[in-house]
Fold these 4 entries.
Entry 1:
Amino acid sequence: MTIPSSARRQKYLGDKGLVALITFLSAFVPLSTDLYLPALPGMALYFGVSADLANLTLILFFVFFGAGTLFWGPLSDRYGRRPVLLAALSIYTAASLGCALSGDIHQLIAFRIFQAVGASGAFAVATAMVKDVYESKRREPILAMVQSMVLISPVAAPVLGAILLRFVSWRGAFWALALIGLLALLGGLALVETIGERSGGSLLGALGRIFRVAKNPGFSTLLLLFSLPGISSMAFIAASSYIYINGFGVSPQVYSYYFAANAVGMISGPMIYMRVSRRLRRRSIIAASFGAIAGSGLLISIFGERAPWLLAAALLPATISASLVRTPATNLMLEQQRGDTGSAAALMSFFGIFAGSLGMTVISLDWTDPIPVLGMMNLLVGLASGGLWLLIGNKSYVVAVPERYLPRGSARR
């Protein structure tokens, strides 16, 4: 793997260490949610609250995570990636300790909000660093590798969380997250600044650059389109423990295996894309992926209620396809912007999380059976995304990136 000069200047981390840190920071969302998913039903019983109220620890995390990226991303363009990263990780680590020590559900929800704000800074900086360090031709393989490594955490985290529950209470999951935050903070201290040219102006001016990026029609159109799969993907994450543990009656340990088996599809998605993209056009791959999500929705609606393994199998095409699309989608959106990478990364994260929070809210309503709802959500998301892609797939900003938005020194694809 050819590492550019900006990566070679990492005195302490080195080239592989930089990729490892970017991967670790990018994994903060699944680590911060999936690790304690097996404990959610038991947590509701511990505090004596409804499942809806316990689910706010998950839903509000994503809401404030998305909002937080809008703050941290522009700040990292103005003040640099490293200081923003250190501040965000300090908040995350302290909030994780607060979660572990919470005395009631309301305290836990409050600390989860602060935890989300800290995690959003780590994630926004990680995405921006990919653009800082790697030029267009090298970015897609790096994105695929990072996203595949990141997606290991949804496999490992629920299993680890279920194992922790055998020895400690739900608080143990948050002690583990505090340790993860501390390790990431040590990595941030070793980081050498990656941004080449910082934006000028005041703090308010830096935050206002969000609107400048949003006015880029190519970026904003793709942003809207590629945020849609997050609706159905995050709906499953919010409902999975209740569906498997309360609905099918499996143990938390068995649930973690079903969740991990489906998450294997997430890991394989980016690597499948890199292989298939050698033979097929990017536009065709994306269109086929949206079709697979719709087809998966039909399978869930027909077979999902019959057995837990049938639900996992029916969901697998949607899981793989949503993961597969992320690599070309991220690169396509990053290619639309010449500067303000942190702001672009912030908007990408915010809209993805907003869509996910919408799906989690819908699936958390008082449904008699959430499985048909999950199936319908995948069907509608697949059809809507596929229809929009057919409308814009031949546009100039998809086929060829506009010159005024190209990063300096990069070539037209």
Entry 2:
Amino acid sequence: MPDGQDAKRPRTRIQQRNRDLILGAALEVFSTHGFRGATLDQIATEAGLSKPNLLYYFPSKEAIHNELLSGLMDTWLDPMRALESSGEPIAELLAYVDRKLEMSRLYPRESRLFANEIVQGAPRILEALKGDLKELVDEKVAVIRDWTNQGKIADVHPYHLIFSIWSLTQHYADFDVQVRAVLGEEEPFDAAPAYLREIFLKILTP
């Protein structure tokens, strides 16, 4: 349904298809050029639509970008939400590493979109970072500290442990071109899971 229309009126199949086309095209353009470098003309061309047709659905580049980010933020938190305090600590944390790496494999454009937003100072998602993200991280940090106090994992700084997991897994998406240039014919995600699990197993084992 085009922005500004009656929110209660269901979208037609064509309207939903065109919105999906626009969002898919915008994800490609934003992840490649960043917010500042992207234009509505580029998005329209990528979507195979005219610019006036695109503007029928979204009034601005900002509206499209915000739509992508709002959906992405929730998806980005899911792997951490799945970390269970009732599980075996090292297994839970290694599974979190696996899920984050799999996100980089399956959603590289989304990862780069998020990274571009952060590099620019997170002007459009700063409140979400200070709100939903921080609340969830604080919750899981309390779990990690409890595991440490019980001697179930090594004495690690919980926030920096999480930062390390983010950086080592998201690197494969955000620096995909560099990784593939260095590895040549080797597929990055063939060896990465076992390697990262080995690293974090050594860090976490008491």
Entry 3:
Amino acid sequence: MQNFTFHNPTRIIFGEGQIAALDAHVPPNARVLITSGGGSIKSNGVLAQVQAALGERAWHVFSGIEPNPTYETLMEAVALARQKNVDFLLAVGGGSVIDGTKFIAAALKFDGEPWDILARQAPVREAVPFGSVLTLPATGSEMNNGSVISHRAKGDKLFFTSDATYPLFSVLDPTTTYSLPPRQIANGVVDAFVHIIEQYLTYPVDAKVQDRFAEGLLLTLTEVGPQALAEPHNYAVRANLMWTATLALNGLIGAGVPQDWATHMLGHELTALHGLDHAQTLAIVLPAMLSVRHESKRAKLLQYAERVWNITEGSADERISAAITATRGFFERMSVATRLRDYQIDEQSIDKLVAKLDEHGMTQLGEHGDVTLEVSRQVYQFAA
């Protein structure tokens, strides 16, 4: 196991009816900006619960944060927060809303051009305090300090992290997910699955606890993912899905182990250029990435095949191939397509995708730093 330091300051408030607990965790004199995506939190009653819990506090609502939150939209929220003298942010939505709120919180305290937080990785030393009410289990943003933001005009999708951008708390009420459309549930399952894979499927470092924890989460997703589509009001299923997605990226399973994230970097370029859902890009890239890089991931792929998919027969190469096929099949059972052609993207786009990776400095990706631009090109071609 590698050396590590693990710290996560976010308080989790889990269970049905817990939105009411906001009153105990938002400062009593706070001036609150509620950030949200579309209108679903109005129609499903979540916004009303939030507003009731805030009581007499001054609050304002900024809605319209996109599924891939854009710099342009978020800067409108920054302007509103300044106009209203906001001193607390409350993200009510899924990972995109929470990611966007992290950027708003950082931008409000940043001395300089806020896009530099992403483009130049300018350090974020302070941020406006914020919490979240999670309504879509997927990204783990409710319990980590990372954020991914797109710049519409530049065609960029970049990330930042800061110790200042952990949520103070996150409310996880599984009943808020009941009204989600199947596409969002399926995307959430795929997103969480690939988050785990990026931290698990690298190379062995004798981290038995992290490996078993990751495998348990993967097995849970293979079980509850299809159930969540079939039984949208099954509280136990939605509760397990919500908590699994949070644990997938709260830092715990990534402590003391090598991490990859090349699949995410290649996926970001697909979203930026073609507007695909984040999870769709991961479903496209991961099986191709594993196929192209199967030799460098050989030992963990064999472990993954046995422990997650119960594949124990055949040669090593046959077991690895079967595990990759099982992964692709799981995504497709969740109704998330896994080929570029499924989204009407042809191979002519690959040059542009690789050029964007080069522009963003993504030339030595992966746990070994050996995912060069040429390897990335091979992955895109394999995914076609």
Entry 4:
Amino acid sequence: MNRPEAEPLADHVQLTPAQAWRKLREGNSRFVAGHTDHPNQDALRRQFLVDKQHPFAVIFGCSDSRLAAEIIFDLGLGDVFVVRTAGHVIDSAALGSLEYSVDLLNVPLIVVLGHDSCGAVTATINSVESGEMPPGFIRDLVEHITPSVITARRNGIRDVNTTVVEHVQQTTHRLVEQSRIISSAIDEGRTAVIGVTYRLAEGKAEMVSGFGVL
């Protein structure tokens, strides 16, 4: 089977938040169907990006090995700016990286990406139920995720996967609340922030929350 040709190496065209999300959805649909293009992964693309980058989205996702953004959205080199922490926990480094992508790279879309069977969320649920905290800096992760678990409990949610949805929604809220750079970009229509959950078995990514115009 012939491999698809590389995309033309043209000047960067700024996408709107809606266009960026549509491009991600289209790539994910190809991945789910098993008809991936594997774009922008050749030597020509690599050389083109040596002294510049123009990602059209930033993916703030969980560190889980089953959640590789470029694969599940059928993307290649230079397409997305990726920030990952276990349970997509917001810390100063993650927030600074996201602000960099918006303020300096002019990325029009931030995607908070969670997934079912999340180990970090599961560990937090176990800690809330048992009253015992894990050792080391794992405790820091659990402390960051605990508000989402408590909110889920208040809404009658107790299973892991629905709690993940709540945590993704809470993370999008916190990003907008904590970052003036991101909230200003949303107000100006330059950026949108959306929450997306990914189903491991099906490979499908679905939007569950959002700020900004799509």
